[in-house]
Write a structure and sequence with these properties.
Chain A is α/β, with parallel strands linked by helices. Chain A has 6 helices and 5 strands; from the N terminus they run βαβαβαβαβαα. Chain B contains 8 helices and 5 strands. Classes of the chains: A alpha/beta, B alpha/beta.
Chain lengths: 159, 188
């Protein structure tokens, strides 16, 4: 799987390690930068590059890393076609694929241990969208990006 | 200050508890639903809450679903919204200080209620740090919303750039020492 990966200075270490990890598990990481961590950089630049590679279909998934994961997650979500969540537990890494069809995952280097991050990335890459009644919600997200008004789907039964 | 709050069925329980908590603390609340515990679309309720914040009617927004992810993705689609997701108290504070977030999402199935309450208080009380480089990045996100391409700004006036020009930092030290010199002052 081709995976775009980007960070800022405070996610640089995990970015380098995750790239090595993904090569080891048979994925093809595409590094959008930054390429050294000696200077402060703006996280929206790299989140946008990851977002655009994923939204255009050049990459299948994306990974963004900063200190908390918040900045890169927000910036990536601003790119049309990107659905990005923060994998703060293993379960959430799976559910964001199954329920939200997330195509980009965000991590916080200062707030998460590397072992957890690598494991959650594997879960994220291995999980698939569950479809079913989640489809209407993902469609609503696309409509919101286009500015189309959305309304509550009529439900036939209690789940 | 007015706060918009919304959830789907999976965040309904915490929403009720937080409404009581925030009212007791003197906040004025707009509960956009869901008002009954039946299956509901998270983007729909996220959009309702978020529009109140984007229009300036409410100062902050609080969103709940099972993981917080669906709410957060939907909210961030709307221009003007910076929605973070809470996973520890530091993050809640940093989301305000560094990212000027005006929305926070919680996951009822993955977070203890007392943690959520504590974190929400921290979030509502923390100010935006307002430092120049943070503000620049928030501006870049605004540009992304307009569909503009953003480029790196190599020669920007940051704290350390000004100090360099004033001669406060010997140039020879930059490569070796600058990480220690500016640790804590420059958050990426």
């Amino acid at each position: 799987m081709r995976v775009a990966i980007g960070s800022d200075r405070r996610g640089f270490d995990y970015k380098s390690r995750l790239m090595k990890h993904m090569r080891g598990t048979g994925h093809d990481p595409v590094d959008v930068g930054p390429y050294d961590d000696s200077l402060p950089v703006d996280y929206p630049i790299y989140a946008q590059r990851v977002g655009e590679l994923v939204a255009s279909g050049e990459c299948d998934r994306g990974v963004v890393v900063c200190a908390t994961g918040i900045g890169v997650m927000i910036a990536a979500n601003k790119v049309r076609g990107v659905r990005c969540g923060i994998a703060y537990t293993d379960e959430v890494a799976r559910l964001m694929r199954e329920h939200n069809d997330a195509n980009v995952v965000a991590f916080g280097q200062d707030q998460m241990a590397y072992g957890d991050v690598a494991r959650r990335l594997d879960i994220f890459l291995a999980s698939e969208f569950a479809a079913g009644y989640h489809c209407s919600r993902v469609k609503q997200l696309a409509d919101m990006e286009e500015g189309v008004p959305i309304s509550q789907t009529p439900m036939q039964r209690k789940f | 200050m007015k706060i918009a709050i919304g959830s789907d069925r999976c965040g309904f329980l915490y929403k009720g508890l937080l409404v009581d908590h925030l009212r007791a603390r003197g906040y004025e609340l707009v509960d956009v639903g869901t008002h009954e515990e039946v299956p509901s679309d998270s983007p729909y309720f996220a959009a309702r809450a978020v529009r109140l914040v984007a229009s300036g009617e409410c100062g902050f927004g609080v969103l709940l679903c099972a993981t917080g992810t669906g709410m957060e993705i939907a909210a961030n689609i709307i221009p003007g919204v910076m929605c973070c997701i809470y996973y520890n108290v530091d993050v809640a504070r940093l989301a305000r200080d560094h990212n000027d977030c005006n929305k926070i999402a919680f996951g009822q199935d993955h977070m203890g209620y007392s943690d959520v309450e504590r974190c929400l208080d921290a979030f509502l009380e923390a100010p935006f740090g307002g430092r120049e480089h943070y503000a620049n990045r928030v501006e870049q996100i605004r540009a992304l919303e307009r569909g503009e391409s953003i480029e790196p700004q190599p020669a920007r006036d940051g704290d350390w750039g000004q100090e360099l020009r004033r001669g406060l930092v010997p140039v020879s030290n930059i490569k070796t020492d600058w990480m220690t010199l500016f640790a804590g002052r420059w958050a990426a």
